[in-house]
């Protein structure tokens, strides 16, 4: 069964510092991977995806993610964090059996201190 | 262009009552998906519907839960005889076509509290 794991419940970073939010995956076949962000009392917003091609994927709000097949990871990164990046981040994978079903990780709360 | 609309945003029910959650997809979207988010957890897929058809309901509990997406009007997620364990945020997403996950646009959610 397809799954993603986010090993950190919370990540704390000072503003201006680089940030990394970790994600590992377990899929059969080629993975279709995604990152979403959820602000308080809001729905999810799509950040970026990896389907195929370059291992470094660039997305919205200056975020990027690096696909690493040997480590089965898809970590989310940003070179310089902003206070406004504070939110809940979800890694997700598209279910191989159903192209319309997305399987989400448990989420990582990112807190950026001024 | 209005996004995905969900109402109510907050719903309080007592055990045994019925909860009806509504989702209006984005204009031009004919595919609707429902997800449930329990506290401190990720979203879990429940059901995928097209107009008048349930395509995939593999994530729906076998009892008390039902969903529809009529030809006219919003999609409805209905929970009968609610229990405390049904307390969660329910998110709806819509897309113009099925397939690529990035084309699913999420609504703000309905937070259901069962007393």
How is the topology of this model organized?
The complex is a heterodimer of chains A (114) and B (115).
Chain A lengths: L2 E3 L4 E5 L4 E3 L2 E3 L6 E6 L5 E7 L5 E3 L5 E5 L4 E6 L8 E8 L7 E3 L3 E6 L1
Parallel strand pairs in A: 2-12
Antiparallel strand pairs in A: 1-4, 3-9, 5-6, 5-10, 7-8, 8-9, 10-11, 10-12
Chain B lengths: L4 E3 L2 E4 L5 E6 L6 E7 L5 E8 L2 E4 L8 E4 L6 E5 L8 E8 L9 E2 L3 E5 L1
Describe this structure in words.
- The complex is a heterodimer of chains A (114) and B (115).
- Chain A has 114 residues and is an all-beta fold.
- Chain A has no helices and twelve strands.
- Chain A is globular.
- Chain A starts with a strand and ends with a strand.
- Chain B starts with a strand and ends with a strand.
- With 115 residues, chain B is mainly β.
- Chain B is globular and about 35 Å long.
- In chain B, a hairpin with a 2-residue loop joins strand 5 (43-50) and strand 6.
- In chain B, the strands form two sheets. In chain B, strands 2, 4, 5, 6, 9, 10 and 11 form a seven-stranded mixed sheet that branches. In chain B, strands 1-3-8-7 form a four-stranded antiparallel sheet, with no helix packed on it.
- Classes of the chains: A mainly beta (114), B mainly beta (115).
- Chains A and B meet through strand 6, strand 10 and strand 11 of A and strand 4, strand 5 and strand 9 of B.
